[in-house]
Amino acid sequence: MTMQDTETKSAAAGAKAFPGSDSRRYNYFEPKGRKATHYEDVTVDVQPDPERYLLQNWIISFGDGTPTYSKDWTALACTDWHGFRAPDQEWERTHYQRQSTIVGMIQNVVENARRAGAPARFDKAWVTLLQNHVGAFKHAEYGLGTALMRAQRYGYTQMVNNAILTNASYKLRFAQDLTLYLAEIGSDIAGSNGGGFDLDAGKAHWLDDPIWQPCREAVEHIRAATDFLEQYFAVNLVFEPLVGELFRSGFVMQVAAAQNDFSTPSVISAAEADYERNLANAVELFALLLRDPAHGEANRAILQRWFAHHAGLAVKAALQLQPLWSLPRVKAASFVEAFDRARNRVAAIGREIGIDADLPALPPMEVGQPASAPAITDAAAE
Amino acid sequence: MPDGLTLNKITSQKGIGISEAARRVADLGWTPSYVKEAMAFPTDYKISKAPRDPMKQVLRSYFPMQEEKDNRVYGALDAALRGDMFRNVEPRWIEWMKLFLAIIPFPEISAARSMATLGQLAPGDDLRTGFTMQMIDEFRHSTIQMNLKKWYMENYIDPAGFDITEKAFGKCYATTIGRQFGEAFLTGDAITASNIYLQVVAETAFTNTLFVAMPSEAARNGDYALPTVFLSVQSDESRHIGNGHSMLMSVLKEPDNHLLLERDIRYSFWQNHMIVDAAIGTIIEYGTKHRDKNKESYAELWHRWIFEDYYRTYLLPLEKYGIKIHHDDVHEAFDSIVKKNYVHKIAQFFSAGWWANFWRIEAMTERDFEWFESKYPGWYDEFGVWWENYAKLSKPGSVPITFADTGYVYPHRCWSSLVPCVIREDFQVDEVDGELFTYASEVDRWTHKEAFAAEYQGRPTPAMGRFTGRRQWEEVYDGWDLADAIQDMGFVRPDGKTLIAQPHLSFEEKDMWTLDHVRGHTIRSPLLALRGMTPQQRQTHIDEYRKGFKIRRV
Ligand SMILES: [Fe+2]
Ligand SMILES: [Fe+2]
């Protein structure tokens, strides 16, 4: 056998030159940058579009005639839905790597804390707060996760839907992180302070404690929204900065250490990092929709309306949480400052996409005046 | 250290048990009281009983497990390159991956989308984690398959066809069958689509042929990459089958649902058979160079996995809940493979229209003939001459086999499954809403006319899906010249004239067909022709069609 023969038999790239033998890139879409990223290669055009390559159109419809995917599923319009790329560039491998790293980090933190007997040294008032209020908050995260899980069905491109899908995955993971974290430290606390850590208290507060009712109302409004982009918008551009971050960063992460709790902030910090990514994705999408030469103005009006609706609910939810800031024995953070930061954050996000998201400063009467603390709030501590 | 006392025991903390963890996580849900969520996904089913989670898993154990699986997959791909896999891989096999991998990422991501549906429809929150994992799994499957395809494109001798993959998916007469499969996961009645068609039938019955039989055949052809990826994909399926079964159990509880379940299991089983067996059967039997007679044929695999494992142990037991199972359909599906040569006729069809493909099909040879004859006695008599003709007509300048005087009758297409009506004696024609349609079999006719309708056996079914779009590829290009249609689809190599598809595996430029070689022939839609006939002409045509044909040597 000659060298030539062996060469010809090989089915490896470059074994032979012929028309198309060097066409080694997906060539049916326009990369965002100079060269397609791996994320683009595995994502773009997997969900087809009759306006691009779907020659025969969608071939099944719903009973009412709606096709498999429809632009009518959101009030927002876009000249080119395919223009969106998620800045976090997530595909399966990076998603599992990141989620898995977070899970591992949390497990290490919790194990180390428990091995050192840390939960037993948490301040007592703080333990009650973890039990009742961090316990309640996990349901908000879960509610947002389920809303996003539904929303990922409706986007017009794979890029939109996968960004919402990973957002749902992050939210649902975090809701579970909190749940299992509380259960685990709770079992240590039960042994040492005698009072017991009531794992059902969080849900009871979520359902009945007046402090949490406006928050639950805000989450339920997001869950019930029928426009999937209203859901995505309300989660990331309204609820998260005004309530989610306010509670996570503006409260728990700031005050925990002063109560001898060094592990809860680590668990919570994962959600803050998740949010940065999801926020970047959402901002990119809504900015694109507002820049749209044909539909930008109409989109702005809609987003402005959604903002008014959901920010109204979220502000109410935030204000009602105010008494929490006075519960810890060591007061390491101020609600007024935290809320102010949240207001600024929302306004900055609004500027980035191009809507007016300025909210009025706290009405003077609200400042420093705790909402009536209902009986149930501290019931479990007694 | 005393016996039994280890450092681990001293330092490790008692965690909460897995059942307790799953119970706590399921307790995250609540019934909204401020605003009720509108049911976004239509269904005619009633579901009142909350499905239970049999798997008891939580996300914190899921993510590391999946990451570990991924590490093995990507490690194996690297190893395959280091081991020079593409030096020895069979091009006959890799060419079919251009078709298979063009199709499969869309059904996968459709499955992810359909978890939105089940998450919302299922009462309670017990199974939410199961649906969440499935959603992320399917996102995994879709993007890991896109990655595999890219890897073939970068490393295989002929990347043409991989390079246009998602565009090809939207244009090709064969991928339209895969789109019927994927769209069926997420459009129409939510339970029909996401629970019955996807989980109870596609995943529970047919993923073994897709994701286990395919990898074995790949390995026999020197392709170690596909097994790595697809066995990893299949390892997620037991979870999905579990989800489907739990959901089905809660749907079953409502006697009112039984009629719809009978309808949907029937439609789903038959259509999965039509689509999956056509595609995977062909790839496994005709995409291989491996002709060991001890190897199980597709028919034998089917009997083991679909007939024994699925039909006997999964479908039959549903009868005790009062669900009517159509045994005759299962037998008929098996007969179509072993007695009516379904797979061979589909392979023949793919080769008849080779010029419209975006992958290459080479002729079967003497060695292939022998294997087919031993596994399917009588095969040579019916198909041998076809493939000999195909080999003869594989040189550029020959008449494309579709238009050669072989006696082959270009098939009608089934309006339900979109697979061509290749088992001629089973061909059906019927009218729906005053329009004439063609079907591959009686169950396909029933699927369109009775199942996909606003009413089923006197019961209103407003949520049921409808067949829409320009379903028949041949209709789109009716009256077009082959060369123009190929160019319109974009199935041309970067030189602007050489076809991506070739009826052989030669990599010599001189052997390759160009647009000029196929110009001068016209595509015709058999359905439009049929509709244009007088009733008498039509009856004659149908009778003739059902008689079939005998291939002549050219
Ligand atoms: Fe899958
Ligand atoms: Fe699956």
Question: Biggest interface: chains and residue counts?
Answer: A-B, 103 and 118 residues
Q: What's the CATH topology label of chain A?
A: Ribonucleotide Reductase, subunit A
The rough form of chain B would be described as globular
Overall average pLDDT of chain B: 95
Q: For the record, what CATH class of chain A applies? A: Mainly Alpha
How much beta of chain A, percentage-wise? under 5%
Ligand identities:
fe (ii) ion
CATH architecture of one domain in chain B: Orthogonal Bundle
Unreliable stretches of chain A: 1-7, 367-382
Distance between the termini of chain B: 86 Å
- SS field, number of helical segments of chain A: 13
CATH superfamily of chain A: Ribonucleotide Reductase, subunit A
3D shape of chain A: globular
Radius of gyration of chain B: 25 Å
How far apart are the first and last residues' alpha carbons of chain A, in Å? 90 Å
Estimated share of beta-strand residues of chain B: under 5%
Classify the helix fraction of chain A into a percent range.
Answer: 55-70%
Low-confidence stretches of chain B: 1-10
- Helix-strand pattern of chain B, N to C? HHHHHHHHHHHHHHHHHHEEHEEEHHHHH
What's the β-strand tally of chain B? 5
Could you explain the architecture of this structure?
The complex is a heterodimer of chains A (382) and B (554). Chain A has one domain (81-381): Ribonucleotide Reductase, subunit A. In chain A, 60% of the residues lie in helices and 1% in strands. Chain A contains 13 helices and one strand. In chain A, helix 8 (213-224) packs antiparallel against helix 9 (228-255). The radius of gyration of chain A is 25 Å and the shape is globular. Chain B is mainly alpha-helical and 554 residues long. Chain B has a domain at 66-288 and 301-353: Ribonucleotide Reductase, subunit A. In chain B, the strands form two sheets. Chain B has a two-stranded antiparallel ribbon with strand order 1-2. A two-stranded antiparallel sheet of chain B has the order 3-4. In chain B, helix 6 runs antiparallel to helix 7 (128-155). Chain B is globular and about 75 Å long. The chains are: A mainly alpha (382), B mainly alpha (554). At the A-B interface, helix 2, strand 1, helix 3, helix 5 and helix 6 of A face helix 2, helix 3, helix 4, helix 6 and helix 7 of B. The complex binds fe (ii) ion (FE2) (2 copies). The site of one fe (ii) ion (FE2) has 5 residues of chain B, from helix 12.
